[in-house]
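Objective 1b. Sequence-to-structure analysis of Zn-dependent protease (Includes SpoIVFB).
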Amino acid sequence: MNISLYDLSVWVLPLIIAITFHEAAHGFVAHALGDNTAFDRGRVSFNPLVHIDPFGTLILPAMLLLAHSPFLFGYAKPVPVNFRALRNPRIDMVWVALAGPATNIALALAAALAFHILGFLPANAAQWVADNLKNTLLINVVLAVFNMLPIPPLDGGRVAVGLLPRALGASLARLEPFGMLILIGILILLPLAGSQFGLNLDIISTILQTMTGYVIQLLLVVTGNA
């Protein structure tokens, strides 16, 4: 299974930009709201080198490309945030969490708008730009939708912790150390178990695909592409 430089340029480049801007947005908003942890560690930056996780940002996406996976996924080093240092920890945590997905939606919107410039480009350049823009739209919407699942430590989980009544929020927050295990369970293990009994238990992936489709269609309509 060969992978070309063209494949890398139209998939990995949009992925690195999406992840970098997502993490940087968390850092910028946290810094603006009183927490200097990320700033002091040099993470309030759009320099991808400070956010790249060697496995999550480079090796994992490359492996998925080599395997001709139907989806591309990756992650960066999480931006450190000391929520107690925020001026209003409970509500500011919500703004910090929302910053990442909101930035991804903004990037997706910009990509959708940029489709209108393709007609002004030379034919040989237009295809490469078009593929980058399509993947930028897809990757950013997938990251935004996935991260808004209400499971800590995903952004949606932290939003839920901040907005729920304190007792419920505290109970949800206690799941954070087990959040990735829960995600692996519902996204991978549960569907595998269901397939052994002829059951489709891949409910979360179906919901994510449906929501991603709706958001992409909305962005295309808003930007005059549909």
